[in-house]
Amino acid sequence: MLRDKNLIPLSHQHQHALAMCVRIDRAVQAAGLDLPAWQAEVHQIFEQEIRIHFEAEEQVLFPAAVRLGLEPLVQELLQEHAILRESFSRAAAQIMDISELHLFATKLSAHIRKEERQLFEAMQRLISPEQMQEIGAALEKELATASNACILPNDSTRLRSKAELKKL
């Protein structure tokens, strides 16, 4: 289903986070990743975008979803937010190990896909265009302080070609 324009700002942020998850997965598979650099990037994306994103969902989107009868799904998503916040906190404290970083990326990716495929799709089917516009306006207000740019990887966290990896 085509994404409603009022949910697109959240979907764009989801794309930024998914890109980071893919890079984490590839870095773990390639071995030799710079764990402190990855944790710093995870913390940075949380502070600049995801913290505000979670708050917008919890303040605007989730209450609307509950009113539509989607409370069980919203409860799952809230539990996942709590687990992910703990992971972001561990990254900020620089206390993750490689397996924990990889598990974090897996959990964040699954969470985003659940929101996109289940929550957003259901809301688009169940809510009127006028209500969706109200949600969109409220989301825009809540997301105003979030970064609008995808965080660029630093030299330690960017993807490398196979040829570059052989030179390392």
In short:
This protein is an all-alpha fold and 168 residues long.
Explained architecture:
By secondary structure, the protein is mainly α. It has one domain: Up-down Bundle (Four Helix Bundle (Hemerythrin (Met), subunit A)), CATH 1.20.120. It has six helices and no strands. The protein is elongated and about 50 Å long. It starts with 7 loop residues before the first helix and ends with a helix. The model has no long low-confidence stretch (mean pLDDT 90).
Could you name the ranges where pLDDT drops below 50 across 5 or more consecutive residues?
none
Shape, principal axes of CA atoms: elongated
Say how many strands there are. Answer: 0
- Quote the average pLDDT: 90
What is the H-and-E element order? HHHHHH
Tell me the layout of helices and strands.
Layout: H1 8-30, H2 35-67, H3 71-92, H4 98-126, H5 129-142, H6 162-167
Helix pairs in contact: 1-2, 1-4, 2-3, 2-4, 2-5, 3-4
